[in-house]
Design brief:
CATH architecture of one domain: Beta Barrel
Distance between the termini: 75 Å
Strand content: 25-35%
CATH class of one domain: Mainly Beta
Largest sheet: 6 strands, antiparallel, barrel
Number of strands: 17
Mean pLDDT: 73
Number of helices: 3
Low-confidence stretches: 8-20, 229-304
CATH superfamily of one domain: Trypsin-like serine proteases
Shape: globular
Radius of gyration: 20 Å
Strand order of the largest sheet: 1-2-3-8-7-6
Structural class: alpha+beta
Length: 310
């Protein structure tokens, strides 16, 4: 009887710890993880996509590049407008300033600065079994999904975790146990496992953006390490934008065999040891948010952004 009571108390303690961690993650995400709405065409209802994104500077939001090309009955259409919703019915117009389509990344600039603390990107250092949390912000509000890292390279520049994700999570931050950004969610496999762009790939894109635009995003230096602690407050300098920067990522070399154990063979995207990686190519087995997040018509927000003058 005592052993049963002890087991129940232990289970309750573990559950309380998990809920406390989730609550802390969600509190941190308020205002910093945003809902992203893309629209093709000038009228509501033509074609729209919904996903997530997050602030990396007071006026810069990172999300997925597949949000900028919307599948329709007439083929893929480039977006005509992008809007972010930090919370509630507030809306901010966003403009594309940089993209890396090979790795499904796009950087957006908003006119109004984020009131919440932007996230800090950490040079990628996850290993198999490390805990991760993925935050999404969509029509039902903020959600967090927890899991463990399965593989650091299932595609060129992409890692996989066991955290189960659904429509609307694409573009959300992948966080380590200390709350640092280790990736951006891109897609999911047939089992719902999350596939995300690693932070080393993201930092490479952002450093090229800095060089092209003369901005300082206060990124960690190449080879730098960040101590395992709560992310420090980070003030982003107001950037000056000369024009959009269409970033062409450097080609990644094929990787050699890895010594770490491969994920379970049931994983349809698992890579056999020694198999070269391949670039991101959506296919029938890649359950990207691209299709699941497309809607033909969405309810208008309570406070729609004003239309720009013709």
């Amino acid at each position: 009887m005592k052993s049963v009571i002890f087991s129940l108390l232990l289970a309750a303690l573990c559950l309380h710890t998990v809920h406390a961690a989730e609550s802390s993650t969600l509190r941190r995400a308020r205002g910093a993880v945003v809902m992203v709405r893309s629209q093709a065409g000038r009228y509501v209802g033509i074609a729209q996509a919904m996903g997530s994104g997050f602030f990396i500077a007071p006026d810069l939001v990172l999300t997925c590049a597949h949000m900028t090309q919307i599948p329709t009955a007439f083929g893929k259409m480039p977006v005509s407008s992008m809007t972010i919703y930090p919370g509630g019915s507030d809306a901010m117009r966003a403009a594309i300033v940089a993209r890396d389509p090979q790795h499904d990344l796009v950087l957006l600039r908003v006119a109004d600065k984020c009131e919440a603390q932007p996230y800090t990107l950490k040079p990628y250092d996850l290993g198999p079994g490390d805990d991760v949390s993925i935050v999404g912000n969509f029509t039902k509000g903020l959600r967090v999904s927890n899991g463990e890292l399965l593989d650091s390279e299932v595609l060129d520049g992409f890692a996989m975790a066991s955290a189960k994700v659904y429509s609307g999570y694409s573009g959300g931050p992948v966080l380590d146990k200390d709350g640092y950004v280790q990736g951006v969610l891109s897609q999911r496999d047939d089992s719902g496992n999350s596939v995300f762009v690693r932070s080393d790939v993201i930092l490479r894109m952002l450093r090229r953006y800095e060089r092209n635009n003369g901005e300082d995003l206060n990124l960690p230096k190449p080879g730098a390490t960040i101590a395992s602690a709560a992310p420090a407050d980070r003030a982003g300098a107001e950037p000056v934008l000369d024009g959009p920067a269409d970033i062409k990522p450097e080609p990644a070399a094929a990787t050699a065999a890895k010594t770490q154990s491969a994920p379970p063979t049931a994983n349809p995207m698992a890579r056999a040891p020694g198999t070269p990686t391949r670039p991101y190519r959506p296919g029938p087995r890649d359950k990207t948010g691209e299709d699941a997040e497309i809607v033909d018509a969405l309810p208008r927000p309570r406070r729609p952004p004003p239309r720009p003058p013709p």
